[in-house]
Amino acid sequence: xxxxxxxxxxxxxxxxxxxxxxxxxxxxxxxxxxxxxxxxxxxxxxxxxxxxxxxxxxxxxxxxxxxxxxxxxxxxxxxxxxxxxxxxxxxxxxxxxxxxxxxxxxxxxxxxxxxxxxxxxxxxxxxxxxxxxxxxxxxxxxxxxxxxxxxxxxxxxxxxxxxxxxxxxxxxxxxxxxxxxxxxxxxxxxxxxxxxxxxxxxxxxxxxxxxxxxxxxxxxxxxxxxxxxxxxxxxxxxxxxxxxxxxxxxxxxxxxxxxxxxxxxxxxxxxxxxxxxxxxxxxxxxxxxxx
Length: 291
Ligand SMILES: Nc1ncnc2c1ncn2[C@@H]1O[C@H](COP(=O)(O)OP(=O)(O)OP(=O)(O)O)[C@@H](O)[C@H]1O
Ligand SMILES: [Mg+2]
Hints:
Layout: H1 2-16, E1 44-55, E2 58-69, E3 73-77, H2 84-91, E4 101-109, E5 112-113, H3 119-125, E6 126-129, H4 141-145, H5 147-151, H6 157-170, H7 174-177, H8 190-203, E7 208-212, H9 220-233, E8 238-242, H10 246-252, E9 255-260, E10 263-269, H11 270-275, H12 280-286
Parallel strand pairs: 3-8, 3-9, 6-7, 7-8
Antiparallel strand pairs: 1-2, 1-4, 4-5, 9-10
The chain binds adenosine-5'-triphosphate and magnesium ion.
Magnesium ion (MG) binds at residues 84-85, 212.
């Protein structure tokens, strides 16, 4: 059973951490100037237009048009099954690996069409942290932190050490693991594993960080650490966080999008969505009248 779980986790990692065979790439961000579209305004880092995802012909999300702003955190909220994870996964091309999935519409990263970019490059530029912490089970803490770099062909020990320390500091885990970096990642608590996964995602210097319910399995202390971290990270990253926790959305996000039955009902500044939503469905959801 455990083995099976490990395999599933590994498969997700495989696609979230650029583990497929790829030519060596630098960790720094490269911007292509081959985008066919007009660049969006500078603050709109990632935009989606009329995005739809269907599985075996059944629509899971449709007509999603919105943008994610640079240096801001956007929360995606909505009842279970409304398509939050499906939207998040579309943003870094995770549906590529599902043969029944069909993605339509447009996703632009700095004006460049994500659907036409190399998928591995997309996942380096748009990192993802999953709901369930998924460190590589057979690797040490250190090796997990630098796994993305190694997959991108970086072997220089001093660089790996530097990036491991920097990423673990950013993810607020360094003090707890600095004396045990060679121990297995699985020796960490769930909350520590989640922060390790965040460090692993940060190590490849993504521009956008997608987080799918990153604290749902964590205790209040670990949750608070991750929320603090989101506050710090958003000064230099664009963050998209799916959460079922309304207080969390209110605490960490600048913008909030409410989804219902595969559609985007409304999006706007978090404060207005929570204090003065324009749609009744949004109001009913945030006040706990349905869900
Ligand atoms: N790989 C898949 N194959 C078939 N259907 C899928 C697949 N992934 C998602 N779906 C369907 O898409 C819809 C949206 O699912 P999704 O996981 O995006 O919801 P969610 O809002 O993240 O829910 P939750 O809050 O429970 O995580 C659901 O009806 C789900 O069954
Ligand atoms: Mg989900």
